[in-house]
Design a protein that fits this description.
The chain is mostly helical. Helix content is 81%, strand content 0%. It is elongated.
Length: 310
């Protein structure tokens, strides 16, 4: 009887120890969690990665790993870690959302500081703050990847710093997600600004190519100010190319294709625009373009329409 009791006690002990051991994390995970609590992000990331390669079922470890990866600018890895965490347990959803809020608010603070410095024409300080804002916003977008507002602020920061290609790429991604005319307008505004700079430097070929891009932006209304002014500037740029070719004694190239391109865009604009100023300037160019093309009737008609707007 006693031996049976001893056997039962031993069995219970063995089962208890087995359950306890089964619930234990690998030593690396434990070390990683301690490093996390000490804010040693690099060590925590290394140890948690090792531990999770042994036991992938610990949602807390995945949350901590994602947190560390954000702090170490490993944004793509962090997105995967948080996704795995939530797939194992919804318990950490609130903490992940709270972490997103912290990063987003830090980004807003940096962004506001950057624009304030920019207003004082302190580009060194503004760029430093914009870069810090981008880092925080990138962290936020890695925590919650579908946050369009975060991507917009990153794109705005790049735009303020003059990194237009990065800004345009992000705005295009945003437009693909939002499909909104407001986002289309942001992209149009940037392209238009670049085109105007090229036009002011009399780089008319490049200017025309950039203004043409505005017309292809999805979801941009045709009555949008940037759409209409890009139409005008396409007509203007092509007309100026033709003028330069016609007045350059070194070349006998045919400039009529550029005049025809100018007419095409300006006719489109005058058929739809309600802007008196745009119409007056368009008819002025059309008067000269038609004249150069030998179309006297249309040239006189353009002059009459211009005079009617006076």
């Amino acid at each position: 009887m006693n031996s049976f009791k001893a056997f039962v006690s031993l069995f219970v002990l063995v089962v208890t120890v087995s359950i306890y051991l089964a619930g234990c994390s690998p030593a690396e995970t434990t070390t990683g969690k301690l490093a996390y609590n000490n804010k040693d992000w690099a060590k925590a990331e290394t140890e948690l990665t090792k531990g999770l390669s042994i036991d992938k079922s610990d949602p807390e470890a995945w949350y901590m790993l994602g947190f560390c990866q954000i702090e170490l600018d490993k944004f793509d890895e962090a997105t995967k870690s948080f996704k795995t965490c939530l797939s194992l347990s919804s318990e950490y959803g609130t903490q992940i959302k709270s972490f997103w809020i912290d990063k987003f608010n830090a980004g807003i603070s940096d962004f506001n500081a950057a624009t304030k410095s920019l207003g004082k024409k302190d580009t060194v300080s503004s760029n430093r703050s914009f870069n810090s804002a981008i880092k925080n916003f990138r962290g936020a977008s890695s925590i919650i990847p579908d946050s369009i507002s975060t991507f917009q602020l990153i794109a705005d920061a790049y735009n303020y710093m003059g990194e237009t290609e990065k800004a345009l790429s992000l705005y295009q991604d945003i437009l693909d997600k939002s499909k909104s005319k407001e986002d289309a307008g942001r992209i149009a505004r940037i392209f238009y600004g670049i085109g105007i700079k090229e036009r002011q430097q009399e780089k008319y070929d490049r200017a025309a190519a950039i203004f043409a891009k505005v017309l292809t932006i999805p979801y941009l209304p045709k009555d949008d100010i940037y759409y209409e002014t890009s139409l005008f500037n396409l007509g203007f740029s092509n007309y100026q190319i033709a003028v330069k070719m016609a007045t350059d004694g070194k070349t006998k190239a045919d400039y009529t294709p550029y005049l025809n391109e100018s007419v095409k865009y300006l006719e489109q604009l005058t058929a739809s625009s309600k802007s008196k100023e745009l119409l007056k300037d368009s008819y002025e160019i059309l008067f000269n373009a038609y004249e150069a093309l030998g179309n006297k009737e249309k040239s006189e008609d353009a002059q009459k329409k211009k005079n009617a707007l006076q």
